[in-house]
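Final report, section 2: Outcomes. Of the targets proposed, SET domain-containing protein is the one most frequently requested by collaborating groups, and we therefore present its record in full.
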Amino acid sequence: MQKTGYASPVEVRNSPFHGRGLFAAVSFETGELIAVYPLLILSVEDTAAIKNTLIHHYVFHVDEDAEGRARTAVAFGPISMCNHSANANADFCVDAVAQTVTLSARSAIPQNEEILINYEEYADEIV
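The predicted structure is given below as tokens.
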């Protein structure tokens, strides 16, 4: 069940892992939806153009074309502040058709705990 009301269920704070991070403002149960954020999907050309910029560290992989050229997306909302962990407590799912990224609890996340996602094969490149 998604938390509702005026207060956000997440907040950006300083992280002990790296710079800023996303933290649970309320507790979440395993499998619970944290939030859905809109995406701006970038073209293959725009993705290549940001490859060597700071913004590249904050995009989500969307897909690849027949030649293996990637498209990425900028997420609007605090999900972009999620730090990486191989032992992530949250999962994300990019939906190119809906142009959204969904964040959900992989395990129980107590209030005030940092929400961490696994960058998977991009971890070495980004972290």
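The longest strand covers residues 33-41.
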